[in-house]
Amino acid sequence: QVHVVESGGGLVQTGGSLRLSCAASGSIFSINDMGWYRQAPGKQRELVAVITNGGSTNYADSVKGRFTISRDNAKNTVYLQMNGLKPEDTAVYYCQVEAVLRDFVRRYWGQGTQVTVSS
Fold it and tell me: In percent, how much of the chain has pLDDT > 90?
């Protein structure tokens, strides 16, 4: 059993910053990719940023230069530093991890954390 828990969401004004955290726990041997996705009302879930276990990163064009993804492998934790927030960043942010367990590899989602940016 693997648990993925996000934290750090909230309400912030345009131009402000937030830092999201996501911790994975359970019978995990290792974690491959860790990523952040978001879903705004009435829209499909979209990739925000992803980081491999080697530290390579990829970002959505809409957040490049403003958001930074990082991870702490010892803690099975991934972070998303969000600067220069805009109202269009308002969404529920979800963490996804690809966990390597004893007999298989599987992707797990967190429950989501709300980010609201006021204009």
Answer: 98
What tokens were used for 20? 């999201």
Bridge-based pairing state of the strands 113-118 and 10-13: parallel
* CA separation for the pair 86, 98 (Å, rounded): 29
**What pLDDT, in 10s, does the model give residues 53-109?**
999 999 999 999 999 999 999 999 999 999 999 999 999 999 999 999 998 999 999
| Tokens, residue 5 | 């828990």
Terminus-to-terminus CA distance in the chain, angstroms?
A: 41
Residue 66 CB contacts under 8 Å (≥ 6 apart), including other chains: 82, 83, 84, 85
Q: Exposed, middle or buried: residue 67 (CB in 10 Å: 0-12, 13-18, 19+)?
A: buried
